[in-house]
Amino acid sequence: MIKHIVMWKFKEEAEGCTKAENIAKVKAMLEALPEKIDFIREMQVNVNINPKEGMYDAVLTSAFDSIEDVERYRVHPEHKKISSFVALIREGRASVDYEI
Description:
There is one protein chain. The protein is α+β, with helices and mostly antiparallel strands. It has helices at 19-31, 33-36, 67-75, 77-89, and strands at residues 2-10, 13-14, 17-18, 42-47, 58-64, 90-99. The chain has a single domain, classed as Alpha-Beta Plaits. The strands form 2 sheets. The chain has a 4-stranded antiparallel sheet. Strands 2-3 form a two-stranded antiparallel sheet. Helix 1 packs antiparallel against helix 4. The longest helix is centred in the N-terminal third of the chain and has 13 residues, at 19-31. It starts with a strand and ends with a strand.
């Protein structure tokens, strides 16, 4: 199994919304993906509760059967819609994929 982890730092304001509003939008969009993409084995989106400077604002933790499924997820049209939106509202991103 492959764990796919992504963290974002969001802009204070973007696309007419506050950081908190955009985080909530992204969280809801991502949490809807397992119903649309059947090869997602698990998915959680959590929001950072520690306001310390330099920390990321939200983290996605997901699981897939294989690295090939992670790639299928990356190019899936439903994921690409979210990714395009997130690119407009984020100022930083980090990710890692690892085998468990």
